[in-house]
Amino acid sequence: MKTKLITREGYTKLKDEHDYLWYTKRPEITKIVTWAAGLGDRSENADYTFNKRVLRQIDRRVRFLRKLLPELSIVDYRPEQAGKVFFGAWVEIENDAGATKRFRIVGPEEIYGDVKDYISIDSPMARALLKKEVDDVFMVKTPSGASEWYVNSIKYQNN
Fold first, then answer.
1. What is the DSSP code string of 55-107?
2. Cβ(124)–Cβ(61) under 8 Å?
């Protein structure tokens, strides 16, 4: 089961997507479908067929977002989190080979799209990192085996 946590930025992004789809994109596509339907035979009308499919995709996404948004809990940074890894932290880690990774621990709904440096709170790496401090060593168990990492830095957007 996915964790129902989200950063304030992630929530705003999903809410903005809903509002754009519902108040801007859907009315545009509805106009096109209505216009194309008025042209007559719908079975061979590419404008009608294509835009009707787009309308169904929009409606599916809007239904998903309307169900999801009320279930999410927004997690904001709190001063007592300073110095430790918690939800929303930007973390840089390093292994013995000198390989470094930098990412932000976020909710599962935030890791899709054009975001490359976010990992889900539900991932093995994020779970292993929780409550760690700078210079702590931790083990991550993955399908390819266990690996050892060191915490180099921890930052939050608001500090």
1. HHHHHHHHHHHHHHGGG-EEE---GGGTTB--TT-EEEEE-TT--EEEEEEE-
2. no
Burial of residue 50 (CB within 10 Å: 0-12, 13-18, 19+) is: middle
**pLDDT score, position 158:** 59
- Phi first, then psi, for residue 145 (nearest 5°) are 120, 180
Using pLDDT thresholds of 50, 70 and 90, give the confidence band for residue 159. very low
**What domains, with CATH codes, occur in the chain?**
5-73 (1.10.287.180), 76-155 (3.10.50.30)
- Whether residue 104 contacts residue 88, with contact meaning beta carbons closer than 8 Å, is answered with yes
- Mean pLDDT for the stretch of residues 32-39: 88
Query: Distance between CA 62 and CA 57 in Å, rounded?
Result: 9
CB distance 18 to 66 below 8 Å: yes
Helices 26-37, 46-68: axis angle to 10 degrees equals: 150
pLDDT tens, residue by residue, 62-103: 999 999 999 999 999 888 888 999 999 999 999 988 899 999
